Amino acid sequence: MLLLFQPEAPGQNNASQTVRATNTLMRIGSGNSFSPTDMIQMMPPSSVSTVDGNPYWDERWGASSVLLYDKPAPNDGWYTRYDIRSDEFEFLVNKQIKVAKGSIIKNVVWVDSLTQKTRFLVNAKDYKLDGVPLLGFIEVLVDGDQQLIKRIELQVLKPNYNEAMSTGSKNSKITKKELFYYSTNGELFEIKSRKSLAPLFGEQSEQMSSFIKEEKLKTGRESDLVRIFEKLATLRPPVSN
What we know:
Radius of gyration: 20 Å
Shape: globular
Number of helices: 4
Distance between the termini: 30 Å
Mean pLDDT: 82
Oligomer: single chain
């Protein structure tokens, strides 16, 4: 039986994510409502690369549940991965690679092929940074009224080969930088230090500061940030709609 879901808004709980992850593992490879206009054939990659590194949010293929903007039902069971550089999702379809533009996709529940951990990617255009909608996709690490968000920033460094010295690289190189934010009503605020979290903590500042200090947590470490936001959620009742 195919369960239907309405598109999710920032701040919803994890219930539908869990159900979608379960459904997609049951429907591996079966897919459903992608239309020919949603997906296009991708040319085989060149055997000779001039770029070192990979442009993927995660290079591994993972089972996924994909929700499009114009369809209320998720597409469950696809193996996919996200190309940050081109803002495209690659899909394994009948042993071929096809792609869908990121602009048509609202969110993706992605199941890690090794750990079976569920991760949640959402279209960044539904969020704003300094009042400007972002491009690409971001990951919701902790959902709820106070969301913890991760963004992967991609940079392509030019070749630095020195022919006279025979040093450096002849290829361009992809580098990735992880940035963390908290979200309030779809507006993103970068987490640069413990001090940058002060506006978020509000009345819980003293309790949260004690917790961070006692547990020796670092705001630049993803696992520590997850613990901080999960602790904050226990100190605040959910905001009723």
